[in-house]
């Protein structure tokens, strides 16, 4: 392996990638089989064709122009496998964000269905931090927030996921530049930065802490949005963002428009353990799909908690990015949505259409 990026420019390299079912070669080229008339991703799991029947193409368009049809198994015409990997990495970020304990690289990789090496490499490439660094930044943020509640400092240290208090003090030192007790005593609320934009759902507010997006709300009246966020975080200091926030807003709006195109948007998820469990399940519902409240309750192993699940969905602060709109009633009705049933309908219709087209 190593760090060199292969470019698969020769037929020999490409054939070797096929032999290896090399997932890193995916989307870099396609192969087609003359005898079947079908083209595939290089790591397709179908039977390895005879070398003399194989033709290589730089793009799927070229393969199709040459008269080949897309393989039904590896679906080279739909979302690329690179996008699929990006989605897996984003799911891993969500797991890290929601987890109280430190998650092992092996476990995260296994959940994503990638080797630890490949997972680590892709994670770094997409997120810009290693899984460990990402996890540390979140543990650290949770720690600061625990200090603001009425727990003792020692409890805060343990419940934030640090193993020993001395470790916490030294790790916190750079970020807080003061001892936890001092921070706790003088701690004002968190600063939340926000920006407002327009999207197909009307006006949207994107609000973020230094860790990530903590609230997304929609309304027909742009002036109603900031108070909605303040309501969610009564003690926080709300601050209108400067131009450096534009990129994040753009990413969010783009994500809402095309939820199947993965993007890394860091989230700062605040909620009880139960709510986080529910939201975790929601994040696993793919665009174009829905679950009923009952199914979500079953998935978290609490089939009797249907009502509590509905409440957890309703208390989701991060609209669309945590897709509570993908939960409907058992008989298929599009019921309650914090931001209006019409918006929920629009979202679901759009996502269904896009999924059918793919
Ligand atoms: Zn295939």
Topology:
Layout: H1 11-20, E1 30-33, E2 38-40, E3 54-57, H2 60-65, E4 69-70, H3 81-98, H4 105-112, H5 116-127, H6 131-148, H7 153-159, H8 165-176, H9 180-186, E5 191-199, E6 202-208, E7 213-219, H10 225-232, E8 237-240, H11 246-257, H12 273-282, E9 291-292, H13 293-299, H14 306-314, E10 327-328, H15 341-357
Parallel strand pairs: 2-4, 5-8, 9-10
Antiparallel strand pairs: 1-2, 1-3, 5-6, 6-7
Helix pairs in contact: 3-4, 3-5, 4-5, 13-14
The protein binds zinc ion.
Would you tell me which CATH topology of the largest domain applies? Answer: Arc Repressor Mutant, subunit A
Q: Into how many domains do the coordinates divide?
A: 4
Following the backbone from N to C, one meets helices and strands in this order, namely HEEEHEHHHHHHHEEEHEHHEHHEH
Give every kind of bound small molecule, once each: zinc ion
Q: What fraction of residues sit in β-strands?
A: 5-15%
Number of strands: 10
Write up this protein.
- The chain has 358 residues and is α/β, with parallel strands linked by helices.
- It folds into four domains: 11-70, DNA Methylphosphotriester Repair Domain (3-Layer(aba) Sandwich); 81-186, Orthogonal Bundle (Arc Repressor Mutant, subunit A), CATH 1.10.10; 191-257, 2-Layer Sandwich (Double Stranded RNA Binding Domain), CATH 3.30.160; 273-357, Arc Repressor Mutant, subunit A (Orthogonal Bundle), CATH 1.10.10.
- 45% of the residues lie in helices and 12% in strands.
- The protein has 15 helices and ten strands.
- It has helices spanning 11-20, 60-65, 81-98, 105-112, 116-127, 131-148, 153-159, 165-176, 180-186, 225-232, 246-257, 273-282, 293-299, 306-314, 341-357, and strands spanning 30-33, 38-40, 54-57, 69-70, 191-199, 202-208, 213-219, 237-240, 291-292, 327-328.
- The strands form three sheets. The chain has a four-stranded mixed β-sheet.
- A hairpin with a 4-residue loop joins strand 1 and strand 2 (38-40).
């Amino acid at each position: 392996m190593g760090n060199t990026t292969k470019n698969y420019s020769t037929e020999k390299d490409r054939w070797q990638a096929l032999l290896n079912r090399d997932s890193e070669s995916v989307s870099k080229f396609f192969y087609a089989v003359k005898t079947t008339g079908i083209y595939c991703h290089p790591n397709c799991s179908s039977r390895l064709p005879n070398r003399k029947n194989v033709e290589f193409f730089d793009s799927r368009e070229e393969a199709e122009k040459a008269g080949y049809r897309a393989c039904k198994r590896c679906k080279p015409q739909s979302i690329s496998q690179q996008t699929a990997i990006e989605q897996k990495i984003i799911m891993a970020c969500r797991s890290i964000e929601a987890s109280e304990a430190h998650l092992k690289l092996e476990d995260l990789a296994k959940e994503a269905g990638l080797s630890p090496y490949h997972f680590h490499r892709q994670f770094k490439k997409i997120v810009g931090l290693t899984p460990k660094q990402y996890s540390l930044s979140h543990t650290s943020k949770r720690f600061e927030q625990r200090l603001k509640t009425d727990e003792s400092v020692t409890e805060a240290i343990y419940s934030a996921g640090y193993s020993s208090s001395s470790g916490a003090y030294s790790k916190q030192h750079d970020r807080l530049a003061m001892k936890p007790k001092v921070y706790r005593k003088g701690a004002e609320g968190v600063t939340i930065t926000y920006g407002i934009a327009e999207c197909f759902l009307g006006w949207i507010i994107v609000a973020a802490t230094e860790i990530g997006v903590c609230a997304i709300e929609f309304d027909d009246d742009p002036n109603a949005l900031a108070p909605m966020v303040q309501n969610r975080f009564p003690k926080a200091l709300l601050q209108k963002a400067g131009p450096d926030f534009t990129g994040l807003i753009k990413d969010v709006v783009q994500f809402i428009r095309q939820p199947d195109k993965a993007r890394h948007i860091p989230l700062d998820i605040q909620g009880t353990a139960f709510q986080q469990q529910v939201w975790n399940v929601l994040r696993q519902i793919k665009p174009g799909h829905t679950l009923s409240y009952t199914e979500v309750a079953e998935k978290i192993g609490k089939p009797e908690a249907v009502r509590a699940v509905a409440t957890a969905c309703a208390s989701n602060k991060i609209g669309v990015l945590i897709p509570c709109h993908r939960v409907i009633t058992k008989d298929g009705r599009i019921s309650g949505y914090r931001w209006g049933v019409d918006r929920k309908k629009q979202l679901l219709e759009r996502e269904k259409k896009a999924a059918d087209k793919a």
